[in-house]
Amino acid sequence: MHDIAEKAACFLHFGFIPKIPSDFLSEAFPYNSAEDFKPSWQHSNNELLQRSKATFESIFQNANSKPQVVPISGGYDSRAILAALLNHVDKENIITVTFGVPGSRDYELGAKVANHFDLQHEAINLSTINVNYEDLFIAAQKGGAWTFLIDKFYNSLIPKMFGKNATYWCGFMGGPMAGAHLKSMKNTSWEEAKSAFFTSNKFSKNMETIQKSKIFSNFLPERAFIDKDIICFEDQLNCALRQLGYIKKVVLFDEYDYKCPFLQPEWVTFSLSLPNEIRKGNNVYHKIFSKIYPEAFALPAVQNFGGSINSRKEILKVRKLLTKIRKRTHESTLKGFWSKMNIYHNFNYIDFDDEFRNETSLKRCAIENLNDLHKRDIIPFNIPSIIKTHRQKKQNFGKELMLLTALEISIKSDESY
User: Fold this and answer.
1) Which residue from 199, 240, 208, 244 is spatially nearest to 223, judged by alpha carbons?
2) pLDDT of 37
3) In degrees rounded to 5, what are phi and psi of residue 97?
4) Mode of pairing for the β-strands spanning 167-169 and 68-71
5) Angle at which helices 76-86 and 45-58 pack, to 10 degrees?
6) What is the DSSP secondary-structure string of 213-278?
7) Are 316 and 305 a contacting pair, CB within 8 Å?
8) Distance between CA atoms of 33 and 331, rounded to whole angstroms?
9) Predicted local confidence at residue 29, as pLDDT
10) Pick from 359, 361, 328: which is nearest to 345 by CA?
11) How far apart are CA 160 and CA 145, in angstroms?
12) Which ranges in 124-211 belong to alpha helices (H)?
């Protein structure tokens, strides 16, 4: 059992508590030994493309007759799912949905993708959603405790909208299987991999909470789960601790029919059989799917700052610059221009900095819990000072204040048992 202050410090470092799911080996790594693991990059590019398409498409062949709900963002994971589903299900039976606020990238780009394919699309405008303590506490009780709790609540709005008579297609594990988290590829030991995980998964640069040695000894696994010749250390840590131990709790809901194509054994086997040097940074993933689903992948995407995957590097640099310029302009300034150019706010769904500076239901809920957390005196921060600094726009602490709120509600959730 961890001391509450130590657990809180770990939570504030990662934004979650690293915990190994009991079934993660069978779920994420369908191998028993290196002999079972046969690399596939000995084939030609065309053969690899055909195998990729056959493997991914096979996952959708038995799609049922229920409404098929696709939570769609501006990125490629949900887009690949949608494109494959369109090959196997009548589009009248497909509903896309997204949540966010008008002007945010996923909210707008997801709608553009749905509109392109003439699909029924539902947009959940988070600025109209009331956030209260009871809802966040329930989200904590249903698996969201010790995570970035507001994400659990927002994701729950989708199945609540469509109910249990629907199938939900989730892009969970798309990026990890593609190698999005693989960076330097220089970690030859388990300790080096843990150090890289510690650094790359830091939630905020503004909160120094705990020494690396304490996290290593008390929260991260002492040894690797399986031989690195089967699965590299980076994949083991990311898939076990972050993806299956954290993200899964936030995006999936056991009482509903969720399908995760990127977590299907056939796709996991295929993806992880590719050399890591090729997977690094989604290199093969984007090339493969842009060839398999050229129409869908030519549409604007967040990875290209609202541009196409076919955009030249010079154009992408301009789009990146325009995204920075929009961030510094008033919302009403050049509104039509930004929309026409697909230049949107560079946050996923809601601006927490604005939420904590305006009179919103989220802020009211958060302030009450932040005051309770301050009274506990278990973290090395002066919470009223952080709130004041943020309100005066001396520094942005919106996401940090949301995480601190999640910390307090997580503690309360634990105390209720």
Assistant:
1) 240
2) 54
3) -145, 145
4) parallel
5) 70
6) HHHHHHTS-SS-SS-TTTS-HHHHHIIIIIIIIIIHHHH--TTSEEE-GGGSHHHHHHHHTS-HHH
7) yes
8) 55
9) 63
10) 328
11) 20
12) 133-139, 149-162, 174-178, 190-200
**CA–centroid distance for 389 within its chain:** 29
Instruction: Name the token pair of 387.
Output: 């709130």
| Cβ pair 170, 260 in contact under 8 A | yes
Tokens of 20: 């190994």
Task: Give all strands of the β-sheet with 68-71 in edge-to-edge order.
Answer: 120-125, 94-100, 68-71, 167-169, 257-259
Q: What is the pLDDT of residue 184?
A: 59
Specify the amino acid at residue 221: P
Give SS3 for 232. coil
Give the separation between CA 408 and CA 375, rounded to whole angstroms: 11
What sign results for the dihedral spanned by CA atoms 286, 287, 290, 292?
A: negative
CA atoms within 13 A on the CB side of 154: 21
Please give the sequence-ordered ranges of beta strands (E in DSSP) within 80-169, or none if there are none.
94-100, 120-125, 167-169
pTM for this prediction: 0.92
- Evaluate whether 262 touches 172 at the Cβ level (below 8 Å): yes
H or E element that contains 320: helix 313-327
**Residue 315's Cα: distance from chain center in Å?**
27
C-alpha 231/C-alpha 34 separation (Å) is 9
Taking the C-alpha atoms of residue 197 and residue 113, their distance in angstroms, rounded to an integer, is: 34
Q: Which residues of the chain have pLDDT under 70?
A: 1-2, 23-43, 183-187, 208-210, 331-332
Q: Are 215 and 202 in contact (CB under 8 A)?
A: no
d(CA 78, CA 54): 18
User: For the chain, how many residues are written?
Assistant: 417
User: Contact at 8 Å (CB) between 209 and 9?
Assistant: yes
Rounded distance, CA 48 to CA 247, Å? 29
Structure tokens at 376: 């506990």
Please report how the helices 383-391 and 361-376 are oriented relative to each other, as an axis angle in degrees rounded to 10: 150
pLDDT at 205 (0 to 100): 84
The answer to whether the Cα torsion of 176, 94, 348, 246 is positive or negative is: negative
